[in-house]
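Blinded run. Sample ID left blank on purpose so nobody reads anything into the name before looking at the predicted structure. Input follows.
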Amino acid sequence: MIARMDARVWEKIFKTLMATDKMAKFEYLGDGVDEGIRIVSSSPNYSFCQILVNKGWAESIEISGDKVGESFVLDLSETQNIIKGIRGQRSTTLEINSDLDEHFVTISGPGGSSQIEKRFVEVIRQLPEVVSKVIKFRISGAKVRRVLSSIKGSNDTVNVTFGKYKIEARIGPQSHINEGCGICFWTTEADEIFVSSEPLGAGIKLDDYQEGFSNQFLVESLANAVNEVGTARKEAMEISEGPDTPIRLRFRLAETVFVEYIQSPKKVVELPEPTV
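Blinded prediction complete.
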């Protein structure tokens, strides 16, 4: 398998995957316009990230291989260190080639080439599909990134709540009320409270969840996973979630580079009442 693309895109891909785990599996899907490579990382029973790099019509991405389904696993920490040494000062193309050696992958750029050892470990998904009884909607990816980054600075977790909301703020002589039906990202920490709300589209109903629902997630991994999302206002992110289900985020990193990130909700363990 040989894949060539802009070094900046490679770096975005690796940073996004490392929000889940440093080991990533690269798999060749074919050289058609809608094919390419699949790169996945997995943290068992906690999170999963899949990135599809389609060949598309762009000349900036070149992908080829001998056999559909061929794959290998790399340590992304080592891969990033190699790229820093060979990528050059300006925007340039990097090549990842797994055909030259059975045990090593060669990474080439303006600064030369270097080999990285293939890792013989399993990278498999161990999370359920997010399909039934979920709310699915689209929101600005830049907004999600900004919100999660803000919460990450003050707390370890974020609450993602669907339903009717009313947020009233009163400071001295000034007050503001924001209410509607939609999604809220929020957290409280000591004397701080952070809330960001987003109305649901007209075609999205909460009929099955009249009282709404709320799940709690580890915010650092979520924030790191979306940190490279496009900043264009029109660049939307798709979010899917239901009561006690994993949250699924889908977005683009580049023209033909698509991300799916899934994280299980944090389980709150209730301790038994002490006996006297």
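Unblinding after everyone has recorded impressions. The first strand starts at residue 2 and ends at 6.
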